[in-house]
Every structure is written in C-alpha cells, then in structure tokens.
Amino acid sequence: MIREGDTMDWTEDREAATQTLKDILSSNQVTLAAPCFNDEVGRPFILETYGGPLAVGGVLIQRSEEGRERPIIFESRTLNSAERRYSQFKKEVLAILHCLKTFQAYLFGRRFIIRIDPTNIVGALKNYKPINPAIGRWIGFIWQFDYKVERIAGLRNRADGLSRVCITVEGVEDAEPIDAFLEYEGGTLVVDHEMADPATTIGQLLIHTLKKGAPAVVAELREGLVTTIRRKEEKDSWGAEVGAKEELMAMTVEGGRDAVMTLAEAWAQKECQYLVHLTREEQGTKQKEQEFFLIQMCEGVFKEIGLLLVGNKQPTEVSPKTKEEVEKYVLRNDHLFKKEKGMIPRRVVCGRSRQLDVIQAMHDGLAGGHRSSKGTLAKIVPLYFWPGMIGMVTTYCQTCLICQERSSVRVYEPLRPTRVQGPGHLVHLDLAVMPVSTDGFRYILDARDNLSGYVEAVALKKKTGKAVADWVEDFYLRHPFVRRFIADNGTKFVNQEVLNRLKTLCVPIKITKPYHPEANAPVERRHRTLKNTIAKLAADNLGSWSRILKQAVFAENMTPKRITGCIRAELWYGREIDFPIEALAPTWNMLDDDQHLSTEELITARCQQVTRNEEALEEVVNRVTDNRMRDKARWDQVKNIRKEPLQLGENVLVRNSALESTWSGQLGKRFKGPYRIAKRVGRNTFELEDLDGTTIRVSFPEQRLVRFFSRDPVEQWLQEVQDRETGELTV
After folding, report:
1. Whether residues 687 and 562 fall in one domain
2. What is the CATH number of the domain that holds 47?
3. Paired strand residues for 58
4. pLDDT at position 178, please?
C-alpha cells in the first residue's frame, strides 16, 4: 500500500513476486474443483464435518481423474448461544445436519461418503435409539441420504479449521438455529412444483436444483410453495404406489414415517420395474386385458415360474424343476403367490432386503412386540413364503439384543450326584431359624449324614462363631469317623472361629456356592420334617420347643429312611437298634438272646454280624447311587440344561439377579452385557472382561451366564445386499 500521490518503483523483483502470486492463485492446488456427477462409484462425493465450540463447518470433496482429493465447496456456520451449550455429541450431529442441508443439491439421491472423527457419532448414524427427541429428528433427516460412514483422525479433518472462526457476541445471538428448517419442512426433502413434474427424472431434478441454487430453494420453502419430491406413479420395490399406504405402513415399522418414506424413495430411485405382459382375449368379448408380472422382484426359479405363468416362456425353455413346481403358484395383481392346501395363497418374497423388511415389521414393529421366533413365525407363515424362512426368522429373533436382555429363560448346569461310600463320609451342617422359646433359644444347629440321614441337633440362643465351633467339635469328638463337613456360605460357618477349630481337628469343610444351594439339600430339606415333629410333640406349649428338640431328633433317627430302607441310627452305628417298647413287650430278637454263650461263640456271632452289615451297607450304597442317577436324569429332562459348555473367548450375558427381588426392576434388563469370558477360576466359575479388553474383577458362576448371539448373520445378509447393489450399479 502507498499514500495518495506517492509513486512506487516497480522493480523486476516485484514483478516476479506478483507473477508468482498469480501462478499460485491460478494453479490446481488452490482453485476449487468442479463437481463430476457421472462417476458415482469411482469418484463419490466426500463430506468432512466438524463441530467446534463456537461454530460448525464442513467441506465437500471429490477425487480428481488423477485420484487426488480436491475440495469443491467449503461451509461454516455460527452457533447461537443455545447451541453453544450443546454437548460435543450434539454439535457433531448438528454439523452433519447443516452440511447435508447446505450440500443437499449435490448429495441427495447419490451414494457418498461421510468422514467424521468421534466413534459414538458413527454408531448413532448406523443404529440410533430415540432417546433425545431433537437428535431423533436430526438423525431422521440424515437417514434420508444414501451414505457410507468413514472415520478420520481429527488432525486430518479439513473441516476442523472452519469450526474455529472468531465469533462476536452479536453474531452468536442473531444466529438462527441450524435445525430450524425442520420445523417448516417437516423433516423431509422438498422441491417446488416445477421440479415435481412426473416427467422429471432424478438426473434432471438434480440439474434443475443445481441451476436454481440452494438459497432460491430455501426462499421458496419459506414462502410455502412446496410439494414433496415423491411423484404419483412411482412404485416401491413391492410394486405398490408411493402414496397414502406409506402412512399406514409407518405405523407398523420401527422408525415411523421417516423410515418408511426413506425406504420408499430409495427403492424408487434404485430399482427399475421391468414388466412383461401377455394379451389374451376373454371368451365372448373383444376386450383385451393386460396381465403383468414384476420380474425384478423375483429371483431364480420363482422368476422362471412367473415368466412361464404369463406365457413369456414356454415349458421347453425352463428347467424340469420349474415345470414341476409351476402348478403350485398363481399370479394375482402382478405378484406371485404360492398355493397351499387348506390355506390362502402366500405371497412369495425374494431378495434379502425385502425378506428382512417383513421380519423386522413382524418382530420389531408395532405388530411385532419383540415376540419369540415361534410367535413371529406364527404371524409370517400364513402370509408370506420364501425358502429358508424358518431359519432366517429364528436367527433374526435369536440375535435381537433387546430380546436377549429381557429373556426370562434360565439355563441350568447338569447335576453332579454325590457318591459316598459309607456313614460319616460327608456330614451336612446348617442353622435353622425358630420362634423364640420361653428359654430364649432362637436357632437349631443340626448335622445330618449324607448316606444314612442320621441327625443330631442343638438349640442356640445366638449364632456366634464360638457356639457353632464348640458344638461341631463336640459332634466330631463323639463321632471320629466323620471325614468331611459341608455347609453353606453363611457367616455362621465362614468365620475364623469355625475354620480354625476344624483345622485343629484336621477335618476339612466344603463351602457351597450361593448359586448351588442344592449341594446342601440333604439337611435343608429335612428342616421341614424336624419342625413338624417338634410342633406335634410341643402342641400344648409351643414355647417349650427347645426342651422337646432331643426327643424329636431321637424319633427322627429311629425312623427308616425311604431311599435306604434302613433305620438311620442302625446304619450310622452299624448294629441293630432296640426300640424302648421291646423291653416291655419282648420281640424275637430279644427272646433269642442266650446269656450262656461261650466266648468263641460270641466272637463268631459278631463276625457274622459284621459281614451282614458290610453286605447291607454295599447294597444301601448302590441303592442310593441308583436313586440319585435317576434324579439326575429327571433333572436333565425337565430343566433347560446347557447343551454345550462355555468356552474361553465366548461372548456371554450375565443375569441381573438384583431385579428378581425388587418391584422397581420389573421392567429392567434381566441380562447385562455382552462380555467376553477371559479366564476359568473354578469348575463352574469364570472371570469376564468387556469387549474392549477391560477385566471385571468379580468372578461369575456359570449358572448366571448365557451365550450372547451377535447380529453377525444379519449384518452379513445386509452386506450381501449392498454388494449386489454395488455390482449392479457398476455394471
């Protein structure tokens, strides 16, 4: 810059600098590229967006013929005071919304790429659950475009700088909300009446919009002279006209009207309805009617059947299988139906995308309610048909995350029966709560033998560790042939007092898991019998139950056990027991007792008694083992037993057991996850980790875990559809 009236010495250096500046400004590195609309697959449009603290920005990019990405147009937008308080997630979605609206003339109706940085935005664009109504409207508008999402590092995002411009306070306050256009457009793409001419093609529509410019279109929208881009004679891929039927369909498809209209417009743009017809004369009239068949909607043998029914092919031109099956099908209103005996004809559905649409509407939609595979099939089978339908519906319902989280199915582990060799090999301990007696006793501590059922019990006033340890020690010192104790994981047994006392006695104790209470069933199930006996004996004074306890235990031990058929005390001590009444009314055994036997005869009699006891014990052990194996077979048949054991690396869900005991959790998720099995820490216990590798420092029993079925099969079906569509566009 020079002052007015001054002169400047124009030297060769300044001339060279000016020319260099001209060359740079006119080079391909600086000038914006012109858009190309003829190569959607090889040179797709690329949209990069970024949401900053004060503004949002974006840049539309396209590869040149040499394969180098060049910008076409830049865009940035000031955020008002309300939008500046949005979370970063909402700002990122808002940036995409603004850029799609601005570049609508370039992108709508074409396949393009969106490049964004945050991972949570990528997930929302693929599968967003409507939590926030505002974001739901934004995502609904974004889903109307045909795009592919790619992640890009923040340092490489060229739109980052556009969102960091300096904004004044006045500019912030005067800025119009970015999503304001959704209020007067209803969240759908619109054009004027001239652009909605039935004869206008998609390509002409895009060119017309480009000539008009986005500001002119927005001005006309504000004036109210608008109409939808949908045209009267457009048909979706199901052969139905795009009209009021979509409003009805929107009630049954998750996502509502926006999702339905998006599907309808996408189908209308991507698919071309090829019709073949056969003219036939009606008997007695000269009128001719046209019978049509939608070829593009059928594949394989169904396509041949349809062409054969309309006469476009002769029987000699189709396969033998088609000629055999053609009698089972009929055409009606351009569509192919399969005839079934005793049923109405069922609509034939071809193509993974249409088949998934049916399953989604019947499972996820308003008429679905996320029912089981059987319930969903009961609604689909009477109406539609395609090969492999049962397996496809079962897989879709089985992999539904919502259904897995709310599943009420319990999976049980196979029973492992306990095998004991004799009395005292395994003794169960437990503590039963009783009404307070007149003497102040509140609990019954009992020990019961696993094989014979022999029981001993004592009344306690407090369930302290010392009281439990003292009685267990007294029991063992009177019965030193006890090999092992087993108890639940209550604090009355799992404490240092009891564990140290048993360690001193050199008697091991096994603590059962909280999710396997059946391991201590021999003592817990007999509490009811013991309490009933006490209640009957102390009927006149229930408060004196503590004084009746020894008598109730004696009566229990003198009663034969059903499974063994032997008196509990006889099997425990290994000798015959005399009942008190036998002293007053002698029985055969009492009368047969000879007091004049010699020592040798007494020893011989004792040896014979021991032999009989060993044989009887072996028979009892076999009888108990057979009975427990029958119980296992009955358990495995009635319960839902896990067919295959869980393996390391498998994805699982964890049962949320806290919901089972709360009223407020009735509508919560019954399962949490998914997680991955990281380590086995016991026979039926695992350590889990999140899918990102974070270890959960809590072990989980196998009974709380169920397998997680991912959506990989469904995603594979969708990928096949996308690959097929891409191949057709390339051809």
Report:
1. no
2. 3.30.420.10
3. 49, 75
4. 64
Residue with tokens 């307070």: 436
The angle subtended at Cα 462 by Cα 457 and Cα 464, nearest 5°, is 90
pLDDT for 723: 76
In a domain, 197, yes or no: no
Give the range among 142-156, 473-487, 677-691, 694-708 with minimum mean pLDDT.
142-156
Please check whether residues 30 and 93 belong to one and the same domain.
yes
Tens of pLDDT, residue by residue over 419-468, are 888 899 999 999 999 999 999 999 999 999 999 999 999 999 998 999 99
Burial (Cβ within 10 Å: 0-12, 13-18, ≥19) of residue 580: exposed
| Beta-strand relationship, 705-707 and 384-385 | unpaired
pLDDT band for position 292 (cuts 50, 70, 90) = very low
Q: Are residues 376 and 489 in the same domain?
A: no
C-alpha separations of 448 from 44, 468, 513, 526 in Å: 78, 15, 19, 9
Predicted confidence at residue 449, as pLDDT, reads: 93
- Model confidence at 268: pLDDT above 50: no
* Measured torsion, CA atoms of residues 160, 165, 171, 173, in degrees rounded to the nearest 10: 50
Same domain for 395 and 477? no
Flag whether 262 is in a domain.
Answer: no
Spatial neighbors of 257 by CB under 8 A, at least 6 apart, are 246, 247, 250
- Nearest-Å Rg of the Cα atoms of the chain is 41
- φ and ψ at residue 634, rounded to 5 degrees: -70, -40
Asked whether the beta carbons of 162 and 54 are under 8 A apart, the reply is no
Task: Find the helix packing angle between 352-363 and 373-380, rounded to 10°.
Answer: 110
pLDDT over 80 (residue 344): yes
> By the 8 A CB rule, do 403 and 364 touch?
no
The two tokens of residue 60 are 């539309």
Q: Which of 191-205, 245-259, 704-718 has the lowest mean pLDDT?
A: 191-205
- The closest of 60, 81, 84 to 162, measured between CA atoms, is 60
Mean pLDDT score across all residues of the chain:
77
386-425 burial code (b ≥16 CB/10 A, e <16): beebeebbebbbebbbebbbebeeebebebeebebebbbb
* Residues 303, 444 share a domain: no
At 57 the three-state DSSP class reads strand
How far is 293 from 329, CA to CA, in rounded Å? Answer: 13
Residue 73 resides in a domain = yes
* Domain that residue 678 falls in: 650-710
Whether the CB-CB separation of 428 and 522 falls below 8 Å is answered with: yes
Q: Residue 318 and residue 329: Cα distance in Å, rounded?
A: 15
Residue 624 forms part of a structural domain: no
Question: Of 242-251, 260-269, 650-659, where does the model show the most confidence?
Answer: 650-659
Domains in the chain, number: 4
| Prior bond of 522 cis (ω within 30°) | no
Q: Are 517 and 704 in contact (CB under 8 A)?
A: no
**In a shared domain, residues 431 and 543:** yes
Residues whose CB falls within 8 Å of the CB of residue 126, separated by 6 or more in sequence, listed in order:
149
